[in-house]
Protein 1
Amino acid sequence: MMPFPPMLAPLLTALRFLTVLPLRRGAEFDGMHFQAGLFFFPVIGLGIGVVALLTAALVGPILPPALTALVGIVVLAAISGCLHLDGLADSADGMLSSRPRAEKLVIMHDSRIGAMGVIAIVIVLLGKYAALGTALPARLAVVLLLMPLGGRCAIVVTMALLPYARPEGGLGLLFYSNNTRRAAVLAAGLWLVVVVVVVPLAGLGPPALLAALVIPAAAVLLFAAWCRRSLGGATGDTLGAVCELSELMVAVGLTVGG
C-alpha cells in the first residue's frame, strides 16, 4: 500500500534529495518516484527561495545589508546540505584538469577536494555575496526568491540537453527518464512565467527582466557545451555545478540589469 497519494510521493522524494528537511516517512518507496520527482525540482527551488526571502526579511531590519546578504547565502547553502557546492567543487577538480575524459570522471568521483574545487567554491560564493551585498532591499528579495528557482530549473534543462556521462551509472541517473525533456519544458516555462511576473512587480525595469532571462540561459548552454566536450555528458556533480552557477548568474543578471 502506498503511504502517500500519487502526486505527493514524488514531491517528498525530491524534497528528501534536494533539501535536508527530515522527511523520513515513505523514504523506503523513493526508488519508485525519482523520475517523477524531477518535475518538482523547480517547485522546490521556488519554495527554497521563499524561505530565503522570508529569512532576509526577518533579519534585514536588524542587520546591515552586507550581513543580510550573507545570511541569505548561508540559508541557500544550508537548506540543500551544500549538495550542489560539493558538485561544483568535484566538477572543477575534474573538468579543469588536463586529464583524459575517463580520468576526469575518476577525479570527480573522489570525495577529496582539490585546489580547483576550493577556488571554484570561493569564486561562486564571493560572486553571490558581491551581487546580493550591493542590492537594495526590494532587489535583494527578488534575487533570493529567483536564485534557487533558476538553479533547479537549470538542473532539469541540463538533463534534457545532455546524456548521462558515466557508463556505470550514478546518483544523477536515477532522475533520467523518457519524460526528462517534458520536465525541462515545464521548468523553463515556470521560470519564464515567474520572472516575467515577479521582476516588474518588484519595480525593476525591462533591462533587469531581460538580463534575468538571458544571462542564466546563456550560462546553462555554455556549461552544457563544456560538459559535452569535456565529459561526454552530465554527471550528478555537473548538475550540482550548473545549479550553483545558475544561481550566481541569476544574481548577476538582476544586479547588472539596472
Protein 2
Amino acid sequence: MKAIEIAQTNIVTVRGSATVAEAVQLMKDKQVRALVVERRSDDDAYGIVTETDVAYKVIAFGKDPKSMRVYEIMSKPCIVVNPDLCVEYVARLFANTGIHLAPVIKDKLLGTISISDILEKSNFIEAPRSVLLQDRIQKAIEEARAVCADKGPRSKECAAAWDVVEELQAEAAHQKAERLTKTAFEEYCEEYPDAPEARVYDN
C-alpha cells in the first residue's frame, strides 16, 4: 500500500504571516492537527505547523498567540513524503524523525499523511510486509532454481534471477534491522559446487 492511497487529500494550508491564533482557529474549524504552510514562490519550500508546535512553543511559555506569527513556530523546510512510498517506509520515516505528520508531495502538494492515517487506513494487520516479503522471497527462490535448471548455473539469466532473490532478502534483513548472514544464492552454491561463486557468466 502506498502513501497516496491513505493520504488526506483535503489539504488545509495557512500563510506564514498568519497569527498563531488564526492558525489554531483554522485547525479547530477544519478539525485537523496540522497545517501546511504555503510557499511564497514556486522554488520555495513547504513548511508545517502542528498542534504540538503551538503547545510547546506558545502555550508552554505563556506567549500571546495573537501577536506571534506562524513562521516563528513552524518547521521549514519540512520532511515530505513521496506519494509512491510504501506505508511501511512512511512509518519508519516517522519513527526515525519523531514526526507524526508530513505533506505528500510530488512536483506539487497532493495531501498529508499521519500516524493516524497509517493506523486507521493501511492494511498492516491483514497484510504485514514481513509476511508478504517472505512469500515473495520463497517464490523468487523457486523461480531462480527453475531458471538455473533450464538455462544453466553459469548463465546470465540464472545470475539475474538470484540477484532478485538477494535484493528481496536484503530488504527483509533491513526491515528487521538484522545482518544477512547467508544468502539463498550462497546456499544454492553449497548444494551445487559447480555453480558460480561470483557473477561469472559463460560466453
